[in-house]
Write a structure and sequence with these properties.
alpha/beta, single chain, about 50% helix, six-stranded mixed sheet
C-alpha cells in the first residue's frame, strides 16, 4: 500500500497520509515521501497551495511510529534518532513552506500529527478532532515543536495540556491556538474542491467554517491559571491543585501523578523555555536534545510497554517519585549534544 498519496488536483497539491489501520502514524518512509512531494512542488507554478489530510475517518495522524521508537529504545538508538531528525525537518519545512499549506486535522491528531498539522498556516479541525501532546504518559516530553504551540496558548492552558496529557476538542483547539477554523467533516470535500478550483484560501475556509461552541478549557482557565502560574515545580502545582475542592483539580491531580516523574519535570521546563522562543527551529533543537536523552532513559521503553504494547497501564517509572528527580537531572536533558540537530536555513518567513 502507498502510505503517502501525493497528487495534483487542480491548482493544489494534495498530500494524504494513508495508513488508516495504524491511525496514519508516521514512519520514516512516509516522512521522506512527504518531504519529496514538498520539494517537487515548491517551484512548480501549477501548484499554488498544498492541502494535507489523513485517510479514513478516525485520524488525521496519531503520531510517529511508536513501535519503532520502542525498538530503538531497547536496541539501536540510531534508528529513532534518524526518524526524529527527518520528522523535525518535515515539521520545519511545513511551517516555512513558501506556498500556503492547509492542514485538515480531522480526527485523532496527536504527537507527530500535531507536528505536521499544527505548524501549518491554515489549520482546520472538525467535530471529530482530538488534539493532544500526550508524551508524559509514556515517559517522554512533548516534541515536534509541540512545546512551542502549547507555550503560546492563553494563560497556563498549554502547560496544563502538556502535564496532564490532556485532549482538546475542536472548541478547545481553537481557544488554545492549536487550530484556526472548525469545519464540519461532511463539508471538507466541498472545501477541497473549491480550493482546487483556485478559490482564495482564507475566504473559502471561512465560508465553510462554523462555530464549534464553547471551549471547556476556557471555563476552567481560572483555576488552571491559579494552579500552574509561577509554580516553581510540579510538586507545587500538585500542592495547589490538592487545595482546591473542585472536580477538575482532583481529576488533574490524578492525571499528573500517573505520568512519569522525570518527563513531568522536563516538560515543565521545556514549555516555559519555549515561551521565550521565536522560531520553530529553536524548539525543534530543544526537542531533539530531550528526545535523545529520553531514548536512553528507562522510562521511555517502559512507558510504551505499559501504554501501547502490553496495555497493562501500570508503568514502573524510574525514579518513581517527583522528589527523586533533582534539578541537575533535569538540567542534563537540556545540555548541548555532540551531534546537534541541523535544520536547513531557509529565507522564507515563518507563518505567524
Amino acid at each position: 500500500m502507498t502510505t503517502v498519496l501525493a497528487r495534483v488536483q487542480g491548482s493544489i497539491g494534495r498530500l494524504t497520509v494513508n495508513r488508516p489501520d495504524a491511525l496514519n502514524a508516521l514512519d520514516l518512509a512516509m516522512i521522506r515521501a512527504l518531504l519529496a512531494a514538498l520539494d517537487a512542488w515548491e517551484d512548480d507554478p501549477a501548484v499554488t497551495a498544498v492541502v494535507l489530510d489523513g485517510a479514513g475517518e478516525r485520524a488525521f495522524c496519531a503520531g510517529g511510529d511508536i513501535g519503532v521508537v520502542h525498538s530503538s529504545a531497547v536496541g539501536d538508538p540510531a534508528i529513532a534518532l534518524t526518524l526524529w531528525r527527518e520528522e523535525y525537518r518535515l515539521d520545519a519545512r511545513l511551517a516555512r513552506y513558501p506556498k500556503p499549506v492547509v492542514a485538515l486535522m480531522d480526527g485523532i491528531t496527536m504527537g507527530g500529527g500535531l507536528g505536521i498539522g499544527g505548524h501549518a498556516p491554515v489549520r482546520v479541525v472538525t467535530e471529530r478532532s482530538v488534539l493532544a501532546m500526550p508524551e508524559v504518559a509514556i515517559g517522554l516530553a512533548p516534541d515536534v515543536g509541540g512545546a512551542l504551540l502549547l507555550g503560546r496558548a492563553p494563560g497556563e492552558l498549554g502547560l496544563h495540556l502538556a502535564l496532564t496529557a490532556g485532549r482538546a476538542d475542536a472548541a478547545d483547539a481553537l481557544h488554545c491556538g492549536l487550530a484556526d477554523h472548525h469545519v464540519p467533516s461532511d463539508r471538507l470535500p466541498a472545501l477541497v474542491g473549491d480550493l482546487a478550483a483556485g478559490a482564495p484560501i482564507e475566504a473559502t475556509v471561512t465560508k465553510y467554517a462554523e462555530d464549534p461552541g464553547p471551549a471547556p478549557l476556557a471555563a476552567a482557565r481560572c483555576w488552571i491559571d491559579r494552579a500552574y502560574g509561577d509554580a516553581p515545580s510540579v510538586e507545587d502545582v500538585l500542592y495547589r491543585l490538592e487545595a482546591m475542592d473542585e472536580p477538575g483539580p482532583r481529576e488533574t491531580v490524578a492525571a499528573i501523578t500517573a505520568a512519569a516523574p522525570t518527563a513531568l519535570k522536563v516538560t515543565l521546563r521545556a514549555v516555559r523555555a519555549a515561551r521565550e522562543m521565536t522560531t520553530i527551529e529553536q524548539c525543534l533543537r530543544q526537542d531533539y536534545r530531550l528526545c535523545s536523552r529520553f531514548l536512553r532513559h528507562p522510562d521511555l521503553a517502559e512507558g510504551i510497554r505499559a501504554a501501547i504494547l502490553d496495555k497493562d497501564r501500570a508503568p514502573r517509572w524510574r525514579p518513581g517519585t517527583l522528589a527523586e528527580v533533582d534539578d541537575p537531572a533535569v538540567e542534563a536533558f537540556f545540555a548541548p549534544l555532540a551531534d546537534e540537530l541541523d535544520l536547513p536555513v531557509r529565507c522564507h518567513v515563518l507563518h505567524p
